[in-house]
Design brief:
Radius of gyration: 20 Å
Structural class: mainly beta
Number of helices: 4
Distance between the termini: 28 Å
Shape: globular
Mean pLDDT: 84
Low-confidence stretches: 3-26, 44-57, 64-69
Number of strands: 27
Strand content: 35-45%
């Protein structure tokens, strides 16, 4: 989804009931007036309200990821491993984009993406596919949500569907949070949640999250969440209308896939920076890496010393960014692995980079894709319980590609890569 984010961190309460949604339908004139008010309020909030004014519970210490198990070895040497797979089959739909991936409790992988005739078309649906642990062939895509189903479940008109993410919680439930638009472009978006008790084989009803007290518009999602020791989930999101900036959505999982509490909080006072990727660093510290929509065309970074409650100013890194999505993970040895488009314009290359100092400096690594005039974008990066890294991304807007590699392969490629000139 090629549209960014903006502010208006609103306290949220509970999921709205169908009765709530049916009351007080607005006329076209009233909707236009309320949109104008929302824009004005968003501008004022971005310019004058500090992030701390957005109510949210203070986060506890970010939970540690499960210990990484070493990959298969020969003697004391870990063998480099690298494989190229396809999540979506050729010709499944005309256009695919914006994949996300998660490691399931069983060890399987689940991917979600959207596809149809083109981005924003009425026939776009959300698809899922599964890769069983220890195998190399993804299952055939399964249609998880389309426009008709979303309209029925949400009891409202749906114009189009967009970005989605999937992730497990600590109760064993699997979550899918996805974007829908009822009017306008991506700035008219809203977030919806579905949950599954069988690792994504079947899904419960879609429910709309109320994140804005006015028209509940313009919150989008892209990257994976962080977890706290008390079971809450911090999902990075971003606001899309007019003035754009990152936020975090704190979700409290309840019984049977319910969401008894969820609250929104602004992450940074800077505008024009969206689609935050959050990387827990340990000892209450956290790194945020941001997509840049401004003329700088540089990835930006910010830090938190209190588990994401407050943040430093976002500063440009030495790495370019052509206004495109990125993702990152922290490896077992403490290094940060980043995947991004290494250019100020265009998305015709995809590259890895590594930081040994918590994101303050970066060393550009192996180029994964590089074909002039084509698109390789929207990467999503996770590490499974064996230490294997899994990367999915949009391949020429035609398919979703999956790269599987280990740290031994990464280290070999980094040694072979000459230092970057930029």
């Amino acid at each position: 989804m090629e549209s960014p984010s903006e502010p208006r961190g609103a306290d949220s309460g509970c999921l709205r009931s169908p009765a709530d949604r049916r009351v007080g339908r607005l006329s076209s004139r009233q909707r236009v007036a309320l949109i104008a008010v929302t824009l004005a309020m968003g501008w004022f909030a971005a310019r004058h309200a500090p992030p701390a004014l957005v109510s949210a519970p203070r986060s506890s210490r970010a939970a540690h990821v499960a210990p990484v198990v070493p990959a298969p070895t020969v003697g004391t040497v870990t063998l480099p491993e690298f494989a190229q797979l396809w999540v979506s089959p050729q010709g499944h739909v005309r256009s695919t984009h914006s994949s996300a991936i998660c490691v399931l409790p069983s060890g399987d992988l689940l991917a979600v993406w959207y596809g149809g005739t083109r981005e924003g078309a009425a026939d776009v649906a959300l698809f899922t596919a599964r890769l069983a642990a220890g195998t190399s062939v993804w299952t055939a895509p399964s249609r998880a949500v389309d426009r008709a189903l979303a309209q029925t479940e949400l009891e409202r008109s749906i114009k189009k569907l967009g970005n989605a993410v999937v992730f497990p919680d600590q109760t064993g439930a699997l979550w899918m949070i996805y974007v829908s638009v009822s009017m306008g472009g991506w700035s008219g978006s809203a977030l919806n949640v579905k949950t599954s008790r069988d690792e994504g084989r079947t899904w419960g009803q879609s429910r709309r999250l109320t994140l804005n007290p006015f028209l509940n518009l313009s919150t989008l999602v892209r990257n994976k969440p962080i977890y706290t020791d008390d079971g809450r989930i911090g999902l990075p999101v971003y606001y899309e209308m007019a003035i754009k900036f990152p936020q975090i959505l704190w979700l409290t999982p309840g019984a049977r896939g319910s969401v008894p509490e969820y609250r929104l909080r602004n992450l940074s006072a800077e505008t024009g920076l969206i689609q935050p990727a959050l990387v827990p660093l340990g000892h209450d510290r956290m790194l945020m890496i941001l997509r840049d929509r401004r003329p700088d065309r540089r990835l930006h970074t910010a830090y938190s010393e209190d588990n994401g409650w407050s943040w430093s100013a976002a500063v440009p890194s030495e790495l370019p960014n052509p206004d495109s999505a990125l993702d990152a993970v922290r490896l077992a040895d403490g290094r940060i692995l980043l995947v991004y488009n290494h250019a100020q314009h265009g998305r015709d290359n995809l590259r890895l980079a590594v930081s040994a100092d918590a994101g303050r400096t970066w060393r550009a690594g192996p180029v994964l894709e590089d074909t002039a005039g084509r698109e390789f974008s929207y990467p999503y990066l996770v590490q499974d319980h064996t230490g294997t890294l899994h990367l999915t991304y949009t391949w020429q807007r035609e398919r979703i590609k999956h790269l599987r590699f280990n740290v031994a392969w990464l280290d070999r490629e980094m040694r072979a890569e000459p230092p970057s000139e930029d």
